[in-house]
């Protein structure tokens, strides 16, 4: 028999249906690949400044790509019974991710607004930030990152409405190719009750608000 979860969904119903089983992180393989990369670009991986670089990169990648071995249910675990049925917005959540096309970073902010589940339980605010980190710490494209956050808030947290807006600068546009360092990509995803024009407008006004602005 399925046990009820904190947000009123059964434990089985709260699980996403597309959970991937991934192999364990292979640091030795990453180190070997980085060494080959250095050779490929014409460097000497045994010189003093690069000798430990493969190890450093392998160690850094365990953190940068930690989201590959996490799922939304791992972080959306804490809710509070406040009987709240109004809009909640968490704004300016820092985003650091890696573009899967060129393996170069993109960074910026995410704004997440949601209307809690029907039972009024709200998600811990830090858990929403952790959800953004979870999906950002994977090889990504910004469009998919935005959609994944919105879907997890709906399917796992049980939110009746969700809006996610992500604004980022991409180094693949800044340091190569078109070389437009100040260009920012803005993506959005809207679910459920936040598709209502009035509610969506309220959420966007909160997201766009800045200290001192009216």
Layout of helices and strands, plus pairs?
Elements: H1 11-14, H2 27-40, H3 53-64, H4 72-75, E1 79-81, E2 88-99, E3 105-115, E4 121-123, H5 125-136, E5 139-140, H6 142-155, E6 161-170, H7 171-174, E7 185-192, H8 197-208
Parallel strand pairs: 2-5
Antiparallel strand pairs: 1-4, 2-3, 3-6, 6-7
Helix pairs in contact: 2-3, 5-6
Report on this structure.
There is one protein chain. The chain has helices at 11-14, 27-40, 53-64, 72-75, 125-136, 142-155, 171-174, 197-208; strands at residues 79-81, 88-99, 105-115, 121-123, 139-140, 161-170, 185-192. The protein has 214 residues and is an alpha+beta fold. 36% of the residues lie in helices and 23% in strands. A hairpin with a 5-residue loop joins strand 2 and strand 3. The protein is built from 8 helices and 7 strands; from the N terminus they run ααααββββαβαβαβα. The model is unreliable at 1-17 (pLDDT under 50).
Summarize the structure.
The chain is α+β, with helices and mostly antiparallel strands and 214 residues long. The chain has helices spanning 11-14, 27-40, 53-64, 72-75, 125-136, 142-155, 171-174, 197-208; strands at residues 79-81, 88-99, 105-115, 121-123, 139-140, 161-170, 185-192. The radius of gyration is 20 Å and the shape is elongated.
């Amino acid at each position: 028999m399925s046990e009820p979860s904190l947000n009123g969904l059964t434990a089985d119903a709260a699980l996403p249906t597309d959970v991937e089983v991934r192999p364990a992180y292979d640091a030795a393989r990453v180190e070997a690949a980085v060494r080959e990369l250095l050779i490929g670009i014409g460097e000497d991986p045994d010189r003093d400044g690069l000798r430990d670089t493969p190890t450093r990169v392998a160690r850094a990648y365990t953190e940068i790509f930690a989201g590959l071995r996490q799922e939304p249910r791992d972080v959306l675990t804490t809710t509070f019974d406040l009987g709240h049925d109004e809009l909640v917005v968490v704004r300016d959540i820092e985003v650091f991710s890696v573009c899967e096309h060129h393996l170069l970073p993109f960074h910026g902010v995410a704004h997440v607004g949601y209307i809690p589940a029907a039972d009024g339980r709200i998600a811990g605010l830090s858990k929403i930030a952790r959800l953004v980190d979870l999906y950002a710490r994977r090889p990504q494209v910004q469009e998919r990152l935005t959609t994944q956050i919105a879907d997890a808030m709906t399917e796992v947290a049980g939110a009746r409405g969700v809006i996610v807006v992500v604004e980022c600068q991409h180094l693949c546009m800044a340091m190569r190719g078109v070389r437009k360092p100040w260009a920012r990509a803005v993506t959005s995803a809207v679910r459920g009750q936040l598709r209502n024009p009035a509610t969506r407008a309220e959420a966007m006004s909160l997201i766009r608000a800045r200290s001192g602005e009216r």
